Inverse folding.
């Protein structure tokens, strides 16, 4: 059931959003909105990290049901990202970590060459670590803000890259990033991760931003699950379990993850769903009984997203709040966040997460 629904969502997103980059053969990029404006058709506004999640979703779909056409699309999207960005990196450490993760998965799935981009991305992430506020990488170059959205995906990437071509010390870097988040940005009352903190030039913390975002929980959970695989102390399993409990207590309505509107926020719930599904798949093998709780949230969220879909040209259209019916935008002037690629990717992501759990037979 979930595999079929994920396939329908995939077809709808690709039909409406996937295009050649400036008409160049052998390229693809995701158009930021549908219906698109003229500027969006030309990709003049560059949503770098949305493309990383589009690539991630394509890898999900390829793992669900391999197809040579999709394999070609994966390679074309990677080429389109490289050409549009002119390089593999940019000034935002969170952006490049997301692309690194997607590229690494594309390599494992479809042998996409990644040595050059991953070398560039991880080198920049290593250089981004400073001792200000006790460690961590900045949100972006030249900034005074350090946050979970940068350090979380960096930790996951380093944990995976350590055994697939990176430096021996990369796994320790993953631990350091995750420990830094644990020490400075976990709310002791709820167990949820705060967003980040502002740092003075002398390295002291000026202010902690206690806003709670769903995707901060997702990347911290993902880092803990990666680190738990080679740790016998149970520390990382325990932190993963605490995060799952906190999410299931504070960030759901009837087990359905809450949305965060459109724009970048449109991706937040889908990212958390991805790492909840990963936790549901891996934690039982590490001695945890919280896998079914994580799976339950994923399945309930997927059910709500599917139930509240709207019908549009190309297939189903999803809303930013999965508990509410989606509205179909009728033109580029229609200011509905359903237009945003981020919102559609998030729903596709949760459906793929449910399909993955379905394949594994995980209870939810």
């Amino acid at each position: 059931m979930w595999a079929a629904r994920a396939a329908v969502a995939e077809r709808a997103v690709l039909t409406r959003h996937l295009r050649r980059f400036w008409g160049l053969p052998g390229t693809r990029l995701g158009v930021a909105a549908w219906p698109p404006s003229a500027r969006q058709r030309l990709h003049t506004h560059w949503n770098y990290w949305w493309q990383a999640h589009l690539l991630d979703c394509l890898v999900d779909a390829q793992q669900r049901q391999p197809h040579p056409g999709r394999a070609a699309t994966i390679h074309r999207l990677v080429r389109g990202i490289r050409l549009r960005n002119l390089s593999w990196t940019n000034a935002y450490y969170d952006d490049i970590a997301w692309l690194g993760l997607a590229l690494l998965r594309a390599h494992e799935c479809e042998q996409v060459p990644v040595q050059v981009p991953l070398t560039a991305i991880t080198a920049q992430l290593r250089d981004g670590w400073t001792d200000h506020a006790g460690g961590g990488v900045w949100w972006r170059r030249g900034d005074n803000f350090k946050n979970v959205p940068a350090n979380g995906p960096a930790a996951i990437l380093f944990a995976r890259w350590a055994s697939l071509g990176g430096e021996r010390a990369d796994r320790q870097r993953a631990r350091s990033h995750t420990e830094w988040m644990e020490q400075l940005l976990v709310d002791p009352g709820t167990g949820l991760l705060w967003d980040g903190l502002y740092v003075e030039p002398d390295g002291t913390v000026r202010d902690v931003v206690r806003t709670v975002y769903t995707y901060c929980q997702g990347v911290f959970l993902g880092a803990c699950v990666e680190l738990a695989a080679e740790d016998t102390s149970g520390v990382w399993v325990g932190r993963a379990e605490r995060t799952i409990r906190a999410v299931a207590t504070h960030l759901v309505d009837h087990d359905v993850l809450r949305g965060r509107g459109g724009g970048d926020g449109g991706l937040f719930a889908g990212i958390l769903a991805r790492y909840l599904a990963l936790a549901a798949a891996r934690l039982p093998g590490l001695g945890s009984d919280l896998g079914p709780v994580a799976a339950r949230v994923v399945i309930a969220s997927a059910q709500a997203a599917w139930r509240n879909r709207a019908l549009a040209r190309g297939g189903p259209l999803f809303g930013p709040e999965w508990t509410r019916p989606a509205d179909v935008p009728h033109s580029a002037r229609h200011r509905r966040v359903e237009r945003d690629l981020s919102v559609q990717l998030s729903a596709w992501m949760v459906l793929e997460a449910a399909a993955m759990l379905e394949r594994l037979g995980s209870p939810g």
User: Anything to note?
Assistant: The domain at 2-360 is CATH 1.50.10.20 (Glycosyltransferase). DSSP finds 13 helices and nine strands in the chain. The chain has one domain: 2-360.
